[in-house]
Amino acid sequence: MLQIDSLHVSYGAIRAVRSVSLTVEEGEFVVLLGPNGAGKSSTLAAVMGLLKPSSGTVAFLGREITGQQTEAIVRSGLVLTPEGRRILATLTVRENLLLAGAIRPDRKAMHADLERLLERFPVLGRRTGSAAGTLSGGEAQQLAIARSLMARPKLLLLDEPTLGLAPMVVDQIFEIVAELVAEGLTILMVEQNAVRAIEAADRGYVMRSGEIVASGSAADLGGAQGLVTSYLGVNRE
Amino acid sequence: MTSRTWSAALRSGAIRALLLAIPVAVLTVGWAAARGASGERLAIATVISVVLVAGIGIFVGNSGVESFGHIAFAAIGAYSVAILATPPEIKRTRISEAPLGLADIRLDVLPAALVALAVVAIAAVVIGFVVMRMSGISSTIVTLALLVVVNGVINNWTAVTGGAEAFYGVPTVVTLPSALGVMLLVLFVASAFKSSPWGLMLQASREDELAASTMGVNVRLLRLIAFVISAVGAGAGGVLLALLLGAITPNDFFLTLTFITIAMLVLGGKRSTTGAVLGVIVVTIGNEIFRWLGDGPMISGFQLPALPGFSTLFLGVVIIVVMIWRSAGIMGDREIDDFTKRWLRKAQVRPTALPGSTARSTARLNAENLVKHFDGVAAVDGVSLEVGPGEIVGLIGPNGAGKTTLLNLLSGVLQADSGTVSINGELLPRKLHRVARTGLARTFQNIRLFGELDVSENVQVTTIVASSSHDHLMHPQDLLTTFHLESQAGRKAGVLAYGDQRRLEIARAAAIGRHFVLLDEPVAGMNEVESLELRETIRELNGLRGAGILVVDHDLSFILGLCQRIYVLDAGRIIAVGTPAEIVSNPAVIEAYIGASAAQHEQPDATRGTEEPQPDEDHS
Q1: Where does the ABC transporter domain lie (chain A) (predicted)?
Q2: What is the CATH number of domain B365-618?
Q3: Cβ within 8 Å, pair B608-A167
Q4: Which of A67, A226, B146, B160 could form a disulfide with B69 if both were Cys (CB 3.0 to 4.6 A apart)?
């Protein structure tokens, strides 16, 4: 479904992503792990057209999307829930969701989706009229995910969905992700709770210093403990 | 690594001023020699532009507050010197009604100029007090209002200024050498200020005002100082201009001059003194070329059509192009000596650290019954807590429980509605920049570094403050070594990897946090191994001088493995306090925060925390 081939991304002299190739098949739940500064978020940003790769290609549903406008990529069904949630704090919960649906031509179905999402995320349903900035961290993350779902993604990219959340809320977010996977949504997730993420996912890739250094299932990666000891140390160059 | 000491600043200021003045002198003297009297006039005007632009840059470049009002100080300088130095015979025909016998005063040019600069300085202090209370766009608008007000006063206070018509008869005594002399002085002041400890602290506030204040930087005072120095620089430009032109009108010092000087500053790079000079040269030369083209010259037999307004068009287009190409101006942050360093070997100055006492901190932090409401909702509702000498204390709780608000109260960023915070029984000072000087520092959830300053400078901001407030000083270089940042010393803080940014923020706080360091979610966004590494860093910080640590985080393993005592906050109240073992088995805490499933995994003595990370193999 998603095919990244020899992707390179540079910030000036710093080569953040070096020759990264990865694939995500339809229906899969894949995680992208690695220490801070490994290039995970840069990879997602390059896929979404938010960063311009210096070389390499990204193909989605068999069609090359490298260099396309982010907006066009979202319309084609590839949606990012960004790190730090990035909800629109002064707009209401409902407005946040409406805005995300605004790119869809099917207004009726879009409004139906909106109501369904408000039912599915009861914390949002109870607070449709509240400014999004007044939501707690966990609620805001649910809004960010719901907002992505408004665009009817075929593939959802989740960038650190549990960042800064209390342990109980982290549980909730992992549950929501598991439900989405069970419903058949394809997901590529970057997550710092590496052990938990690899146990929940079908497969994982490990990045370090801009490169993919390992990939496979939890067992392939030497189990959770092996993953921690081999790959996740602090990334310093 | 550049050291920010006064002696180093004076020396590098002198070198930079000379390096900049020499090419300007060569260009202007050459132009004057080639073009005669009209050439000399343009040459002097160019030199005066450098005085104005470098003067404005002292404030704008270091503080990051844009100013449209500095030309008002040029106007005040120009009119003051005009009124004082013009011969009474001429003055009586224009301003015979002037109060205080101003019409009869006859001062020599030099004393008149000095008095004029004193008038500018006084005006700048008064106006500065207003500007310093604001930040961002509101202070910019105040400076613009200042320009309009001063212009209005000069236009209408006919008895003193002669009103809108020209004030003539000012002695035209400015020569190219004397203008160059003033320019050299202003370039020296601008360069030295930028490299000085004051300059560094002001630049820190430009990058992040809140972080600078919590590190003990008195932002308002420094802004005021820079504003006054900068106003006097612009005033000197105005004085020179009056003494060049001989006849001045209020509108000589209004929007046109404001626009041109700001264009020069922005084009060259407002944070760079070299940029100020370069901006003046580029705009002046470009202006002359396009004026010549616009007049419809003959070029190898072809008569070009006359295009009035061509040079103004040029200025506009060049600004747009440069801003697209390089938004920080041509020079950005760089200076001419950055390029000549290779030839002029710069002596490395290592400031000697004061022999710090090795005594460990004995301070105790107490919060009593703190209450803070936002819009009627109690974010912190009667919290008391204590951090003993050298103790590492954790603070956990659900999102929205009030942890960050509590940390803001403890660090003086917010004032409590009721309740007290005290260190060894002394109340925390109300002024934010004084809090750090008591030896209490903090970090921020969303990392607030001084992004455009390098790693070493980030730490120096706090070592400079620390050196003025307590006896225990750590050398910046030693701090960087302690926190494994020595290899990054010259890099801009904003481009560091995330983990290094976190460590730098802690190092910066450690420099001034002699007694306490408060950490707000230091391992957010870090994986298991990285958080273990940071735990060791925090232990080192604690071991260094026995500073007490209060740490907020959601990473339970991290908190349980690090802290001796943990407070649990829920809905603004402390619902539990105890050792890690007591906390994980406390039913109320499991109910409110941990959740039953996670609680099973978090036995404090059997966590992954016992396994230490291997030393990093690719640590280069």
Answers
A1: 2-234
A2: 3.40.50.300
A3: no
A4: B146
